[in-house]
Write a structure and sequence with these properties.
19 helices; three-stranded antiparallel sheet; binds zinc ion
Length: 498
């Protein structure tokens, strides 16, 4: 009897203890995220689930982040609140007077000096390059950030304003990813998961948009404002922030995918599924279906894979790394502002060519048939030919013997002689590249000097469609013009590189 009472007493104390513990935890994250957000909830959730966002929100206190909630639920607005508060953080925390602090988490940051914006001297706004963006790539943030009259900072601070937004959207995605665990812990419903996938898709799309605009801006000023272009490449903090943010953003996108895949099981148990496919991220259960399409994300990431953007991306990233010497730097005849600089760098790195001597590339020398076919063969991975060629003018000791045999076997060249020393014309160059690519079909190009019946018409059309060349004027292609070595490596980078 007595011992039984004692047992009950202990059990009661234990229950009370557990109740207090549980009550404390419930209070700490305050029930469901559908509830109207309060300042305390927001901070407590971030403190527990996203220490970096908590750092941003508690360091930047010049305005009340609750203005971004306006009576809405915590989960639907928290990413916006972090994004907007982060803008205040970049301005208020920087040690550089005309600069911004780009935060990369765990105390890591870059103070990027952008005093060049205020020095004047022809600083380029984003709106000046806006007309270079084709209409099909004018995604839904285009008007807001890059079009004429777009939001002041993103526009007037050019590529620095774009970096600031790029990093703010990064923190938006990081916040959404971190809060997925909060949704699982609080047994959240469809509304919360819907806000979640929408937030993820939104910030993913922003990744592609801001990266595209940043590289488009650099490509634009490379010719329109070369001094500014060089100043940005020389801005080590800018380049390092860009490089590190890009890597961090890419890994957050991969993390989103994992989270959504993992959450699918959880949601399925509740009669929902989280579907992630190339076209979008969606939440459905037959009655309820919503989410976010990834059309813009897909369009822009495809564009970013093209040679022009890939080369600019690596130029920015390499400029910010410790080692800044590129292979082209050793050629005395390849100036760093030459249009073919990136192509020569690519060609040397890829083993397509090593120059005409250790110190020269001879960019303006005529390119021979033997040279272009050798470059093309190497750019395709130097595949071993089945045998030697039967060309009467190719000796087995010639440096291009294997390339000639490969070109014959793959049907790129035919006949009894190879003509390795013959100069390579523009029509020959695109024909060789087109055949090596498997003779893809293309819409007819509109050049007065390329009649539809000539045998290279399809190759010219393909080269234009792929952005390898746009012709020598609006309506001429100049098929008989002889290519220089600089032109050939540029064509190859655009056609085979990336
Ligand atoms: Zn913003």
């Amino acid at each position: 009897m007595r011992s039984r009472t004692l047992k009950n007493y202990v059990a009661c104390l234990l229950a009370l203890f557990l109740f207090v513990q549980t009550a404390g935890q419930v209070h700490a994250v305050s029930a469901k995220p559908e509830d109207t957000a309060t300042r305390e909830n927001v901070l407590e959730v971030l403190r527990q689930y996203d220490p970096n966002a908590y750092h941003i929100m508690t360091t930047e206190t010049s305005f009340d982040f609750m203005m971004w909630f306006m009576g809405e639920s915590l989960i639907s607005r928290i990413e916006v609140a972090v994004h907007e508060t982060y803008h205040g953080y970049t301005h208020s925390q920087s040690d550089v007077f005309y600069g911004e602090r780009i935060y990369l988490g765990d105390g890591k940051s870059y103070d990027v000096d952008y005093s060049i914006v205020y020095k004047g001297g022809g600083f380029t706004k984003t709106e000046e390059m806006a007309k270079q963006i084709p209409s099909q790539l004018q995604t839904f943030r285009y008007d807001q950030y890059v079009a004429p009259g777009a939001s002041p900072d993103a526009n007037t601070k050019g590529v620095f304003g774009l970096l600031n937004e790029f990093s703010a959207y990064y923190w938006g995605l990081e916040t959404m990813n971190s809060l997925s665990q909060f949704l699982l812990d609080t047994d959240s419903g469809a509304e919360s998961w819907n806000s979640y996938v929408t937030g993820v898709g939104n910030n993913m799309t922003a990744y592609a948009e801001f990266k595209y605009w940043t590289l488009r801006y650099m490509l634009y000023i490379k010719s329109a404002n070369p001094a500014l272009y060089q100043a940005i490449l020389d801005n080590q903090d800018y380049c390092a922030a860009y490089r590190n943010l890009d890597a961090a953003f890419v890994s957050e996108i991969a993390r989103s995918k994992e989270i959504l895949d993992r959450s699918a099981g959880f949601m399925r148990a509740k009669g929902f599924s989280v579907n992630w496919s190339d076209s979008g991220i969606y939440l459905e259960n037959g009655m309820f279906s919503s989410g976010l399409g990834l059309d813009d994300y897909n369009k822009l990431t495809a564009e970013l894979k093209t040679a022009e953007y890939a080369a600019m991306d690596s130029a920015l990233k390499n400029a910010g790394s410790e080692q800044t010497e590129t292979p082209s730097a050793r050629f005395s005849d390849v100036p760093s502002d030459a249009y073919y600089y990136d192509a020569v760098t690519w060609a040397v790195e890829r083993g397509v060519t090593s120059g005409t001597s250790t110190a020269t590339f001879s960019p303006n020398s005529q390119c021979t048939t033997a040279q272009i076919l050798t470059f093309l063969w190497r750019a395709n991975g130097s595949p071993a030919p089945a045998g030697s060629s039967s060309f009467s003018d190719v000796k087995s000791s010639d440096y291009y013997a294997a390339a000639a045999a490969w070109a014959y076997e793959t049907g790129i060249v035919s006949g009894k002689t190879f003509g390795g020393d013959a100069p390579c014309t523009r029509s020959m160059a695109v024909t060789y590249m087109w055949k090596a690519a498997g003779r893809p079909s293309a819409k007819t190009a509109d050049f007065t000097d390329v009649p539809v019946w000539v045998d290279y018409a399809q190759a010219v059309a393909w080269a234009v469609e792929k952005g390898i060349t746009s012709g020598t004027s609006a309506n001429t292609f100049s098929p008989e013009e002889i290519c220089t070595r600089a032109q050939i490596v540029t064509f190859l980078l655009r056609g085979v590189g990336g």
